[in-house]
């Protein structure tokens, strides 16, 4: 990933920290930074700084042209370089604006459908112009929807995905004149090269076994393969769908959710104490040690916190399934935390909308954000070095073989 050196003058900093409008200061800072990045990209493509004489020069600058970019901190003006006898190319604001466009489109649809507040109408008019119509919304959707839908339905058969993490978050969607709760089912995977990918998003009527089975069937129809471990919470419909659609695959119950379940069943006076005793079980070096620690905790607290101990004992095998993997892979695969952070980003935008005007709007906004996240992951560092896992896997039976309970199917 390219790195650029950015400078910020003192006047800009003064406006940012001491100005009357915080958003105005942030907009000016963003505008300054992005314009410097554009100039740096032009230098990369030309092979020379402005006025620099060099044999590697590919072409010459020919001024700039203005390009307005709408953001949530205001409209900024980018000075896009012109290249004499050539064309300057950048994805700097094209990628960024997909999720921004989706956010604005959702707001516009709310106004067009007559379900928005006066404040939302004011925001959309400020962002999109003094007037907009149903045809304006339709035209903008036609530009963005094919891009998001093509990405969300792309083939997955080019790589195997040994590790998959799934989760759902609930949204409010207006359908047939009523506001309904719908589940956005999302999956991410770690491929055989060690990179994370967003596998896709689907809007389900609920987080039922049927909805999750439809989601998994859709992923498999697009080429999802090589799954060895699936991480999720303990939602009944989800776990049953995993059993049905991925027979022989190991299910790792999210340790973060599991700990909450235990503490919810624990007397308040014992919560800190039991938390400190369970953590070593989850972080044990192997399944044998975890089992030994489990027996000690059960013996000590079975009368003090019987409900919590029942939860602990019932979930032990599933929550320690990851201990069968080589140690270096356990930390990042024992919880759904990577998915939780993704959900937080979605929530940050969803709170602006509150109630989506239709299903298409929800998929557009979430899909655009996930698409940008996916591109960021693909161009960044590997999430996991898979070398040791692949070597270890060649000599192993399914990783769930250490216990019959852990194995799915």
Automatic annotation (TrEMBL):
List the keywords (alphabetical). Answer: DNA recombination, DNA-binding, Transposable element, Transposition
A single Gene Ontology molecular function, please? transposase activity
Superkingdom field: Bacteria
Tell me which InterPro entries the record gives.
Transposase_mutator
Q: Which GO BP terms sit in this record?
A: DNA transposition
**One Pfam family linked to the record:** Transposase_mut
Q: Describe its function.
A: Required for the transposition of the insertion element.
Write out the similarity annotation.
Belongs to the transposase mutator family.
Instruction: Supply the name of the protein.
Output: Mutator family transposase
What species is this protein from? Brevibacillus composti
């Amino acid at each position: 990933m390219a790195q650029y050196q950015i400078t910020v003058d003192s006047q800009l900093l003064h406006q940012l920290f001491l100005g009357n409008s915080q958003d105005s200061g942030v907009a000016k800072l963003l505008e300054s930074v992005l314009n410097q990045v554009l100039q740096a990209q032009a230098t990369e493509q030309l092979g020379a700084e402005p006025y620099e004489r060099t044999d590697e020069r590919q072409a010459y600058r020919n001024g700039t042209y203005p390009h307005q970019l709408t953001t949530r901190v205001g409209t900024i003006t980018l000075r896009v370089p012109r290249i004499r006898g050539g064309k300057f190319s950048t994805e700097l604001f094209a990628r960024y604006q997909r999720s921004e466009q989706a956010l604005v489109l959702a707001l516009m649809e709310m106004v067009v459908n007559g379900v928005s507040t006066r404040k939302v109408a004011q925001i959309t008019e400020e962002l999109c112009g003094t007037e907009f119509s149903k045809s304006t919304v339709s035209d903008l959707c036609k530009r963005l929807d094919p891009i998001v839908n093509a990405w969300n339905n792309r083939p997955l058969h080019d790589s195997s995905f040994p590790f998959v993490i799934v989760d759902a978050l609930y949204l409010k969607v207006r359908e047939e004149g009523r506001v309904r709760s719908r589940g956005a089912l999302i999956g991410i995977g770690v491929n055989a090269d060690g990179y994370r990918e967003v596998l896709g998003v689907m809007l389900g009527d609920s987080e039922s076994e049927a909805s999750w089975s439809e989601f998994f069937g859709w992923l498999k129809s697009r080429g999802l393969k090589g799954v060895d471990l699936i991480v999720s919470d303990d939602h009944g419909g989800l776990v049953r769908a995993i059993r049905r659609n991925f027979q022989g695959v190991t299910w790792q119950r999210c340790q973060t959710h599991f700990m909450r379940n235990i503490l919810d069943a624990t007397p308040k006076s014992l919560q800190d104490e039991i938390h400190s005793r369970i953590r070593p079980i989850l972080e044990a070096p192997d399944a044998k040690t975890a089992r030994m620690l489990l027996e000690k905790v059960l013996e000590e607290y079975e009368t003090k916190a019987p409900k919590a101990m029942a939860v602990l004992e019932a979930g032990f095998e599933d929550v320690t399934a990851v201990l069968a993997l080589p140690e270096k892979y356990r930390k990042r695969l024992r919880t759904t935390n990577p998915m939780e952070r993704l959900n937080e980003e979605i929530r940050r935008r969803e709170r602006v909308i509150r109630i989506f005007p239709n299903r298409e709007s929800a998929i557009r906004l979430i899909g655009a954000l996930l698409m940008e996240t996916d591109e960021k992951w693909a161009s960044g560092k590997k999430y996991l070095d898979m070398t040791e896992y692949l070597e270890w896997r060649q000599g192993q039976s399914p990783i769930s073989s250490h216990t019959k309970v852990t194995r799915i199917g």
